[in-house]
């Protein structure tokens, strides 16, 4: 069965092997592959660069860019740079200092490539945990978020981790904003980023650690982020 799954026009998703982060919390992970009008591909939040997945991506077209949406989503960047050395690597704020071993072409969103205009939009949502660059892909009407929205299955964690995840709103039937990120975004700059995000004509929403929203994206985003702006 193909690893890449079509999700929207010129947009594919692939799940990776779950990773274990701080305090033993396991996270499901997901990447997206976006195709620009030129035919070039943009890899967002890459998962493990396993041979079958690399081959499927290569069959779609030339990989033009690799995007790390925040300083937490960097673990597998080196594998993809090795697989596609011609691709430009784009960093979120604070990632360059964290990964001096990698050569980044630019930092998003301040140095967004000019030829992305009309094809990919980027907005920074600052927060005290990991400032995140959220992307919008107009061709598919899809917003891509890394950690700002999450939902793991109710039985994903056990013991004390399950209790913390439930209290933090990491688990549930629909993706929501974890409490820690709500607190981390209590500043005017973050609210400005969220307002711009809510202006996008979103039809779909993809997150790295949760269930994608396949329709009604703009209303969904207003429902989860809107209360934070009041």
Textual characterization of the structure:
The protein has 230 residues and is of the alpha/beta class. The protein is 25% helix and 26% strand. It is built from 7 helices and 13 strands.
SSE order and pairing:
Blueprint: E1 5-8, E2 11-15, E3 19-20, E4 26-27, E5 30-35, E6 41-44, H1 51-60, E7 63-67, H2 77-83, E8 88-91, H3 95-98, E9 106-107, E10 121-125, E11 132-137, E12 142-150, H4 159-167, H5 179-184, H6 188-199, E13 204-209, H7 217-225
Briefly summarize what is shown.
25% of the residues lie in helices and 26% in strands. The protein is an alpha/beta fold and 230 residues long.
Radius of gyration, Cα only, in angstroms? 17 Å
Order of helices and strands: EEEEEEHEHEHEEEEHHHEH
Briefly note the structural class of the backbone: alpha/beta
Rounded to the nearest angstrom, the distance between the terminal CA atoms is: 45 Å
Strands side by side in the biggest sheet = 1-2-5-6-7-8-9
Mean pLDDT equals 96
Shape: globular
Q: Which residues sit in consecutive blocks of at least 5 with pLDDT less than 50?
A: none
- Fraction of helical residues: 10-25%
Largest sheet: 7 strands, mixed
Q: Based on DSSP secondary structure assignment, what is the total number of beta strands?
A: 13
Strand residue content: 25-35%
Number of DSSP helical runs = 7
Comma- or semicolon-separated keywords:
230 residues, alpha/beta, seven-stranded mixed β-sheet, 25% helix, 26% strand, globular
